Structures
1.
Amino acid sequence: MDSIGVLMPVPMSPYLEQELEKRFNLLKLWTVPQKTQFLKDHSGSIRAVVGNAGNGADAELIETLPKLEIVSSFSVGIDKVDLNKCREKGIRVTNTPDVLTDDVADLAIGLALAVLRRLCESDRYVRSGQWKKGDYKLTTKFTGKTVGILGLGRIGKAVAKRAEAFSCPISYHSRTEKPELKYKYYPCVVELASNCDILVVVCALTEETRHIINREVIDALGPKGVLINIGRGPHVDEPELVSALLEGRLGGAGLDVYENEPEVPEQLFELENVVLLPHVGSDTVQTDTAMADLVIGNLEAHFSNKPLLTPVV
Ligand SMILES: O=CC(=O)O
């Protein structure tokens, strides 16, 4: 398979790069200065693109690559891949579900604990020597808080399971009710937000879910409510979130994702009720390896005419 051109637009996992290089002709787009010319020069050999959560394959890239057969994404979310264009051109698409579920769900709980118990702020309190001048203030209990989950797919269910271990009543909103689950379903996001203490956003980003967290939802969550976003930045109307936090209309936020990554609204930097992570939901050594193996497994299956391991298209 070493003559097959595999295009990687941005750096991701060193292990993935190394394993792809063993098997394919890996073309690292970020290392070349003249990208457009490079793509033209290699358009006859590039048969696969390996994208990720930030850089997938948009219509323009797909049109540039006439021999493209498969986009194997090093991510579970495939909102950066033009799925319609892929369908139209018969290009297969794969992602990395399941292997990252635990890490992302763990992080959602970590963020909720970090916001309510002020873990980052109290860490700073110790490091800056302030403890010597007096004890840190009281924080807010997590156990027993009502957790609302927006999107009860694989990761949403894993968040629910973990939150249940903290005796948290669980409610959710998703496209359809899942009557087999014992959690309370709300057909409308505003209603879910009005009836929970912590709202966890974990649905896929689509045209329907873009800015699903708007001013009305934020106000429904209210000054004691906490928003946790481990989905995608564009799920949230970010300027509305920032003003709600600045004005005290929202109790706190734990964010792993933002509208224009890696840009993060600087007004949030001063707020102690906000915990900011750099989109690291699945970034553990173990999951990085498992995701990379899945990307490679999908490519090998495709180029050996075997069924794809995790097909999306
Ligand atoms: O954001 C990460 C992913 O989609 O895997």
2.
Amino acid sequence: MDRTVPKRSSSMPSGSPPAANLLDDHIFSSNVEDYDINANSPIGYGASAIVYGAVYKPLNKKVAVKMIDLDFFERNQIDEVRRETQLMSLSKHANVLRVYGSFVNESKLFIVTPYMSAGSCSDIMKTAHPDGFEENIIATILKQALQGLDYLHKNGHIHRDVKAGNLLVDKDGSVLLADFGVSSSLTENGDRKGIRRTFVGTPCWMAPEVMEHAGYDYKADIWSFGITSLELATGNAPFAKYPPLKVIMVTLSKEPPTLDRESTKHKYTKTFKDMIDMCLHKDPTKRPSAEKLLSHPFYRVAKRKDYLVSKILQHLPPLEERPHKRVQQKPITYTKGVTWDFAVDSEHRDNDDQENSILQANEGKPEGKRVEFSDTNDNTDTKSDSSAVTNVPPKKSRFLVGDAATESKVPLSLSVPTISSTVSVTPQSPLSRSQPPSAGTNFVSNPLSPGEKDEQNAQRLQPQQSQEIRKGRFSVIESNGSKEKTSSSGSQHESDNNQRPPISKERSNEKLTGDP
Ligand SMILES: Nc1ncnc2c1ncn2[C@@H]1O[C@H](COP(=O)(O)OP(=O)(O)OP(=O)(O)O)[C@@H](O)[C@H]1O
């Protein structure tokens, strides 16, 4: 598959909105004391972070501070996220959230961004539009988001986590793409020599080729954009009620989701449905680029951004006063050589469904293309107190899809301690309780740079003896022959494999271009 992104442009595409030029020259302080953080009322929770409103004292300016507890991450992943954060600070497009600055204090990484006072589109829907928005509103939101996405793609970047929760809205009706880079850095295997192309995302928005680990490019964002469109029209992403593995199974085995115009609260046009269907082609080559999509007739009904102010922002309660549900997520851990343990959260306490999904998702999959899963956070000691800045982020649904750590006949154990159930499957099945997973076979595959397709295919065919250990949201690789090892400090890499760096490492050297 062609991993190339559209050719980098030296200037923004014509018609792009002007960059937010705010505070460009100010160097934000790295002293946590300079930020008056409202620790009592977080404004949002991510898979790896808690977001607070704060006042930046030197400028007396309201900002958002995203706090990530680095204790959960490996050293190389921390370096990675810092590089990505620096990259985000270069972004100056009006529809991409700028990073003002970042710093580490004790074991916390603080990322300072503009305060987007209306919160995310997901947040707005939960607060006031649970069944979705009207079409004109959706077009106005999506057009701005698409302009941001087009900017990222034209600069050689893949967002990888497009969803309504990452479309932030400011008080003037601007819509900005957020979380670009950070979440992917924290979720991608930062180990240059481990399994390639592992990816953590939120399964409902994840493109099939990402789930299949077949290699992906910027068109994966277009799929997520199509899912986000459905989310804005119905209040939820398709399959949102399913357990994550069932989402994966259904996405891979069924027809792509589409807009059911008969069942929505608001009336939607065929044009809108057509735009969504274009994004949700299973074959990524059939999906349009962001630039192409912008010329779709659907966007003709998009209004100026202040339309959003009058239609949806006016009566919203302030962010700090909105109810924010702390999502208790499944703690799924793979203990080296022993078991997959997973507890099912109260929302998805459908064990049979979950187990069947695991089995069905993997049934008949070619070697090396099995779906695996991991939780986002290895810390089972989830604190519920939201009053301290040192809070542990709540567990949230982000799952890792990667190459199978074992060859198809090597069984994995599954046990569900919290609900006293154990998966039992036939010995032929990829999943079995009968034996612990011995060191397995990884079919190593790398992210492709342009022109590396053949090399990558060749690599995929070469099994590599190693064992994958899931730790938190990351893959940790250990090989049988001690050739390759990632310790918890994440620094030792002795493999002689000629692996490519993950996408984000390649990207991190690139500069965003084309500021208008
Ligand atoms: N700059 C900001 N201004 C206002 N609200 C924000 C800002 N950044 C994040 N939020 C709120 O915090 C929530 C969590 O943000 P965060 O980027 O950590 O996680 P996420 O993208 O929703 O989840 P994940 O990390 O799982 O992708 C957002 O959905 C949004 O509601």
3.
Amino acid sequence: MTTQTIAKPVPAIEVAGVTKDYAVSGMEPTRALDEVSLDIQPGEFVSLIGPSGCGKTTLLRIIDGLEPTTSGQILIDGTVTAAPGPERAMVFQSFALLPWRTVRENIEFGLSVRGVAKGERGEIVDRYVSMIGLNGFEDRYPDQLSGGMQQRVGLARALAVNPQILLMDEPFGALDAQTRHLLQLDLERIWQDGKKSVVFVTHDMDEAVFLSDRIVIMSPRPGRIQEIIEVDLPRPRSDDSRRDPRFLELSAYVWEQLKSMIVRDGAQG
Ligand SMILES: Nc1ncnc2c1ncn2[C@@H]1O[C@H](COP(=O)(O)OP(=O)(O)OP(=O)(O)O)[C@@H](O)[C@H]1O
């Protein structure tokens, strides 16, 4: 008889026992995260959701290498990593575009920093401008664009450097509901095309259910993993997904979990 060992896939991101304390002068340090462990597989879309201040942004910044851990570590493709790297890109709620640069120059910026040749940069920018539907707006400046368009540029800028991992911090939080829905559809399509690993911070239950393979619910500060929910809705998702009874059931379930934590936390405070 032969025995076969099936190799366990190496996670794209491994959060291994991460605790984070912030020093606060003259006071006890603030514990933002407490022993958080989580594996994210290549091509997986994972959302982080939880009460305000539970450490979602902190966890994202630690994964990106922008913030050190107090204890525990981050492994990217199985290697301990404590600094930003070309395989990760971040998309921010505030868009974080350079106001003195045009759409084209904003998207091109990360490519020039990474040493991509000028001729090649032009082609890549054109591809991502089309992907996010901003043809004709390449020479506009950020303040000449709507919020939704600015976030499309933020997304294109992150995608243009072709990261394996996309870290998104409430990217659609500043947008109106209709624009948000459209960008969720865009992101679903882009994710289907490229199958990047995505960690997506949101406060919006429907957004988390619509986009995710798994939803990580975090507890109030200090942030711990309260529960992980598998989203078993078929892909690709479309506007019809939002009317699927399973969508409504999952969204209601996430809300129940969040509500009970917020009420409990408020009652203690
Ligand atoms: N630089 C810092 N110095 C001190 N405390 C900080 C710092 N950054 C964050 N914190 C604290 O750490 C905790 C977690 O903050 P974080 O921004 O990660 O939470 P969050 O879940 O992203 O919040 P929100 O949902 O409101 O955006 C909060 O109590 C916050 O006040």
4.
Amino acid sequence: MASAVPSFPEAARVVYDYASNLLACHPRTERLALDSTYGCILAQPVRADRDMPAFQRSTRDGFAVRAAEASAHKWLQVAGSIRAGEPPAGPLPTASAWEIMTGAAVPEGADAVAMLEHVEQDGKKVRLIKGRTLDPGENVVPAAAEAHAGEELIPTGTRLGPSQIAAAATCGYAHLEVFVRPRVAILTTGDELVPVDTTPGSSQIRNSNASMLAALVAQNGGEPWILPAAKDNTAALGSALRKGIEADMLLISGGVSAGKFDLVEPVLASLGAHFHFTGVRIQPGKPLVFGEIPRAKSPLAFFGLPGNPISSAATFLLFGSAVLRALAGNHLLAPLFSAAQLSRDAKGKPNLTRFIPAAFKSDPLSCHLPEVAPVPWQGSGDLAAFARANCFIFVPEGIDRIPAGDIARILPI
Ligand SMILES: Nc1nc2c(c(=O)[nH]1)N[C@H]1C(S)=C(S)[C@@H](COP(=O)(O)OP(=O)(O)OC[C@H]3O[C@@H](n4cnc5c(N)ncnc54)[C@H](O)[C@@H]3O)O[C@H]1N2
Ligand code: MOO
């Protein structure tokens, strides 16, 4: 690795290329009941089991007609009635209409559906009201217009959200083959750390990174494996790291900056680690370390995340999450940035790309972009500020300030 500290885009390229290569090594799969697959990554394509729709479907309650006849505003005889779920009716006689419900099969011979609200009725006759005309195809979805039988609807490697689960359900997939979640070891380091359920001494702190990173791992499709926190000495770190080597990925928090107890890098090096980079020109998160440890099976990717909680979260979201998603079989590797309008200035820093903790909110009654403002903070250890944040504002290197009113890119947390 060259000694120059890479910029954000340079480091991101290294990580995303690494992650893309990992996608080729297929993780293990398991078969799950459809209703247990939310958030899982598909390990098989989902295909339409029949034409979608399988029949010409009405999208409105009303009357199936011939558009040309209806548009002439003649009275049409109601020839029958069809509800959703009933077998296709028809054919539609000339100068006739067929009462139809939303989701029912349009009778053969009809080419449009007049909405109930757009017709006048006189006993068994209906007529399109004045000023209304109908085009062929209106309010009708032709058979197979959505997909043909056998067509791939969802590719392997897609994260299953509500819309994908609905599509799988409609195609009859009661079970799905999904990738087994990768196990991510989380090793926090620091003599000052005590467990969450204990009272810290006057200069101690509770270990918040373990819980935070576990949540981030779960959010990104991994199974967190929290190791006991390690003390800042070579022996303790070495034995903790040797435990973590069994995992599919390793996150270490703390001990990566310049202090004399920042021993993570030398201990990793003693295990034969190869470092892709040992710092990135970002703030927070500059001391981030990324590398791999050789193993008999496949190398173990690791991130040495800076101990400050906001730095740990930012670097995991920006870099670690891409490697985790690749290990999980998820084809969407890079984090999904969004956009929002700044309600306050966002300040840059010389020679660094900044990710400023911020809160974005949107007014459901407005059609404007969400508004975003940095949260006031005392630096990357300020968990009180972080609790008020739900995103990071992205200020690229070389930009001194993004003024209030401008659109900024944000990374939701
Ligand atoms: N002389 C320099 N000092 C520092 C530099 C530098 O370049 N030169 N970089 C600073 C930056 S930026 C960061 S970020 C931190 C990163 O430090 P480490 O990764 O070595 O982390 P620690 O020193 O162990 O801890 C930093 C900070 O975070 C707290 N911490 C650590 N682990 C946890 C945890 N599990 N839960 C909650 N909080 C944790 C720790 O108590 C420290 O306050 O270094 C700067 N210094
Ligand atoms: O840049 Mo460090 O990651 O702020 O505290």
